[in-house]
Specification:
The complex is a heterodimer. Chain A folds into two domains: 2-20 and 65-145, no CATH class; 148-273, no CATH class. In chain A, 40% of the residues lie in helices and 25% in strands. Chain A has eight helices and ten strands. The longest helix of chain A is centred in the first third of the chain and has 20 residues, at 42-61. Chain B has a single domain (2-180), classed as fumarase. Chain B is globular and about 45 Å long. Chain B has helices spanning 11-16, 34-45, 88-93, 107-115, 128-132, 172-180; strands spanning 2-7, 22-31, 58-60, 98-101, 119-122, 135-142, 151-165. Chain B is 25% helix and 27% strand. In chain B, strands 2-3-4-5-7 form a five-stranded mixed beta barrel. Chain B has six helices and seven strands; from the N terminus they run βαβαβαβαβαββα. The chains are: A alpha/beta, B alpha/beta. The interface between A and B is large, with 57 and 52 residues.
Chain lengths: 280, 186
């Protein structure tokens, strides 16, 4: 049994909120750099070059990459051989977000109630997904999620008879409807199977997989590649102003489901696909 | 083509702009997003004054991140314009000449743009650090309690935008996509 003080979790989450909002992961930087070379539209290339410049300025001047520094989504995998001490884990996570958004000059975008809409002024609460795993480590992923793209995400409860073609059509429909609103080039996270909430969570988690890593399941990998090609043939392009770079990756996760169902969730993320990962 | 235009936007400049023009804006614009639009709508209903005159002005749909000490503003890119569609036609009919945002608009907004000889510009979404460099000054002029959603008066210099909807009813989101659509899979 390993003991870990929750203050360590607060400290790391604080740093990760700031890090994720100023620096993209290497796989995202690489795919965005490549896109400048492959984009066919002149305006599209100009926009992609602006995104490069934007990332440079963000890192050098410590200005958030995007003013929508998101609602903080935290995935936390806790090894079953870890004993957490020093207070409530949930409080520690929220405190990390609170400190990170204050000290990092990040925007406070969270309202206390979805209808009364009063800002909480510290960007809490976070949305937390806990998972108990084997081992004695704690793996934290902080993924600040902007709502321009979150608003364009969808859940489809398909019928088993709709099959793989139905799934592809659902993904393409979501992307087409998202269009310029989701700040393309986007990353498309897809969850297939499970239940209503499980597929949505899988789609969210798919966005944290490196964009250059394909699924290990052969038919899923093929579908990821085919959908990416089709999305990039749609013409939507960078900022939705026409071009051949509409998505940077399609990441799909699958899970067993019920004999009567075929749930599909599509979680869309803009080109500012942020996540920081640390293992404690 | 590239154009350098002053804001507030003159009737002539607005009428001459065409979807697809790459424009550098210099002058004064005002920020307002969801909550500020709701308040402005309520003010109009009560017959109260708006925080700034709409006549020939441009609204930037934007809520910045906080500025670090000594800086003018934080990250300052556009938010999705469609959420303001409910409010935009009335403001356009009151003289508003331009809107800067990103994303599709409704037919009602498009009609109001044509009817009033106005313009809808897109700034590149997710380029807030870069766009902040074209903002010279920022001052909250109303609804301070709304935090990032307060109304700000911004002085901008060569602020890069692209004309999406013009006074002739063109919509770049519709036309540009057709030029690069290779497979009508959707």
């Amino acid at each position: 049994m390993r003991t870990l003080n929750v203050s360590e979790i607060t400290k790391n989450i604080k740093e990760m909120c700031i890090e994720a909002n100023h620096f993209l992961s290497d796989d995202m930087k690489c795919v965005l750099r490549k896109a400048v070379e492959t984009e066919e539209a002149p305006l599209g290339r100009q926009i992609l070059r602006q995104l490069q410049q934007n990332m440079e300025i963000a890192g050098e001047e410590m200005i958030p990459i995007c003013q929508d520094t998101g609602m903080a989504v935290v995935f936390i995998e806790i090894g079953q051989d870890v004993h957490l001490e020093g207070g409530s884990l949930e409080d520690a996570i929220h405190e990390g977000v609170r400190q990170g958004y204050a000290e990092g000059f990040l925007r406070k975008s969270v309202v206390k109630d979805p209808l009364l809409r009063e800002n909480t002024d510290d960007n809490t609460p976070a949305v937390i997904h806990y998972e108990i795993v084997t081992g004695d480590q704690v793996t934290i992923t902080v993924a600040p999620k902007g709502f321009g793209s979150e608003n364009m995400s969808r859940v489809f409860m398909l019928k088993p008879a709709d099959g793989i073609e139905g799934v592809k059509a659902a993904v393409l429909t979501a992307v087409k409807d998202a269009g310029p609103n989701a700040c393309p080039p986007m990353v498309v996270g897809v969850g297939i199977g499970g239940t209503f909430e499980k597929c949505a969570l899988m789609a969210k988690k798919a966005l944290t997989r490196p964009v250059d890593e394909r699924s290990s399941i052969p038919y899923v990998r093929d579908m990821e590649q085919e959908l990416l090609k089709k999305i990039n043939a749609s013409g939507i392009g960078p900022a939705g102003l026409g071009g051949t770079t509409t998505a940077l990756a399609v990441n799909i996760n699958v899970y067993p489901t019920h004999i009567a169902g075929l749930p599909v969730a599509v979680n869309i993320c803009c080109h500012v696909n942020r996540h920081a990962v640390r293992v404690l | 083509m590239d154009k350098y235009i002053k804001v507030p936007l003159s009737d002539k400049d607005a009428a001459d702009l065409r979807a697809g023009d790459y424009v550098y804006l210099t002058g004064i614009v005002y920020t307002a997003r969801d909550a500020a639009h709701k308040r402005m709508k309520e003010a109009l209903e009560k017959g109260e004054q708006l925080p700034f005159k709409m006549q020939n002005n441009v609204i930037y749909y934007m809520g910045p991140s906080p500025s670090r000490p000594g800086r003018v503003i934080g990250s300052a890119g556009p938010t999705t314009a469609g959420r303001m569609d409910k409010y935009a036609p009335e403001l356009l009919d009151s003289g508003l000449k331009g809107m800067i945002g990103k994303g599709r608009r409704t037919q009602e907004v498009k009609d109001a743009v044509v009817r009033n000889g106005a313009v809808y510009f897109a700034a590149v979404g997710g380029a807030g650090a870069l766009l902040s460099q074209s903002i010279i000054s920022s001052e909250v002029i109303a609804y301070d309690d709304l935090g990032t959603e307060a109304v700000r008066k911004l002085e901008i210099k060569d602020f890069p935008v692209i004309v999406v909807m013009d006074s002739q009813g063109n919509d770049l989101y519709e036309t540009a996509i057709q030029n690069y659509c290779k497979e009508s899979v959707m």
